[in-house]
Amino acid sequence: MPRLKSATQSANVTIHDVAAHAGVGSMTVSRVINQNVRVSDALRAKVMASIKALNYSVNMAARSTRSGMGGVRIGILYSNPSSSYLNEVMLGGLEQSSRLGCQLILEKCGGLASQKAAVKRLLAGGIDGVILPPPLCDSQATVNMLSAAGIPVVALATAKPLAEVSAVRIDDFQGALKMTRYLIGLGHTKIGFIKGDPNHTPTQLRYEGFLAGISEANLTVNPAWIKDGLFTYRSGLEAGRELLELRKRPTAIFASNDDMAAAVVAVAHGLHIRIPHDLSVCGFDDTPIASTVWPELTTIHQPIVAMGRSSVSTIFEMIKTHKSAKMSKPIHHLMKFTLIERGSTGKAPYLASQPPSTGRVMPLT
Amino acid sequence: MPRLKSATQSANVTIHDVAAHAGVGSMTVSRVINQNVRVSDALRAKVMASIKALNYSVNMAARSTRSGMGGVRIGILYSNPSSSYLNEVMLGGLEQSSRLGCQLILEKCGGLASQKAAVKRLLAGGIDGVILPPPLCDSQATVNMLSAAGIPVVALATAKPLAEVSAVRIDDFQGALKMTRYLIGLGHTKIGFIKGDPNHTPTQLRYEGFLAGISEANLTVNPAWIKDGLFTYRSGLEAGRELLELRKRPTAIFASNDDMAAAVVAVAHGLHIRIPHDLSVCGFDDTPIASTVWPELTTIHQPIVAMGRSSVSTIFEMIKTHKSAKMSKPIHHLMKFTLIERGSTGKAPYLASQPPSTGRVMPLT
DNA sequence: CTGAAAGCGCTTACAG
DNA sequence: CTGAAAGCGCTTACAG
User: Fold this and answer.
1) Shortest Cα distance, chain A CAs vs residue B363, angstroms
2) Strand D positions within 7 A of protein Cβ atoms
3) Which of A63, A72, A82, B289 is the most buried (most CB within 10 A)?
């Protein structure tokens, strides 16, 4: 049975078809699609036209076969499958891996014992490098196991990168500082803060960023307005209640992540405190829950998709060096964060002379 | 520079290395790793031992190159990147695609106009098949465009599969029926229901499943207890408030998805209604928010990871048939759902003779 | 049941 | 700047 070749079956069009159509050698086509400079403009134009006419696209599998990077397998070792992080990490990672023609292997693990087993599975599967999203990015034990096996590692979104381990991250300190300045700029002087899980590296840096913002404005922190949290919704519920039941309560609450900030919003509902008229609330990370609750949360957006992309190219780079038996130096990428302003923050209460506009009143009051 | 071959550099071990080690031809190795039956037990054992000794693993890129299915490109056209659905779809889809040695291409689109553009991008990229997660799975326009271009399509998690389009889904009607029976089994007779977005196919079936459960128990539905929703948290906030401010309010509320159920929980907080002592709340889908809020939501779990896996194998199957120029018949997979019982539901109030135990009281009261 | 040969679509390394 | 040859790691198709 003859193979059909229509525009819709482009997957079967090869480099040789294009070469024949353009009347050149297949190497010229290869050079054009690889952006190689050493092709005359005349031939390049002809090839481009043929590629378009035949609707050609590169067969990644074949490319990576010959280029030596064939079947590069990159593991992503994650511990929390429903983390909103992972979603976007994969979005970016997949995009980059298909561009690079390499394979992404997801491996799940639970506790520390299970981490060990997961690393072994990864090793047995013949993995070439591993990406560690949070909170595993901070697991010294996992990093050590992988390093001992000679596997390159990239720590994703760790706040305190080790000098000897590659990392892709944002500056948590600066992020928290920016948010604090923003709240102060709205006229808030009584600002509460909910810390994250003490075992995760961003926790301390976000807190320090907050403190830095407070002190540069010559404000003081009321110790009663600093609460411990665990990055969970439930811990936010408790911290939020403690803060909002205070006789002298803050006019703004900066939670170390979005889950906890969403919980504070729920607590405020319960106490009939209007957001943002009576209270401003903000989070960190810009995970889906930030735009699920109402009002939506002002937060610090981490470019997770880009960070996923970057992790894959970084680990790929390291694998390449590693395979050529050279010493690979750790690579560090610092990405840019953005402050996203949404409905959960507004001017400090005593500055808002106007009665609240209907659009921003809590629907529950 | 000589290539190192240690157990940790298994990616470079080829089928020929294994063959040499085992003292057989490389075809025998190929047959063993492909589970081909026609290999003598003696040789098979030798090969297995060598594979283990050399820590060999298949180079997927090379395999797919020769097997004709090389560079099969499967598109996933999604409209909501932060949907918790997509996360798990990718988890399963990626697992399967790396097993099959094919490529997953993510393509995002927004409104209907942008759907058209996204389909064009996919076509231009030389895609071989497309998976449509919700809500795009129900977009007749998109399905038509793809079909017209001769591209196989799989609709993922649609509630009303078209006979002529392949689909992987659960039975939304049965899911809602099971949940309704569960609530009735807890003694609830006054059950409220919040519908989903009228444009999504699961909306109607979940509602019908609920009605079926009510009527088979010879109960009646108070029309005031049926509210419209849009699957969003905010719509759940409004519907929840309307239901809970009723003079005669239901003792249980079944929301058509988890976002809306989470909102009902928040409303209950605000009205000092204890969950589950005074009110049971349940959702549908088992998305991350179901286990984020407190108390966690009783819900219907869709096996999304398995559905992602299944979508990829289904579309791969169709592409294979399609490439061999045969007519491909639509394939339909019905997956099993599970009722997950968590803290948000309990016995109907008048049956709970005991005062609420501390562990289940709302932390806000 | 087993294996030597040819080929998948691309790129590397070598000649012009 | 251009192209014919050889090869990537695997499988298909062909012989034994």
Assistant:
1) 7
2) 1-5, 7-13
3) B289
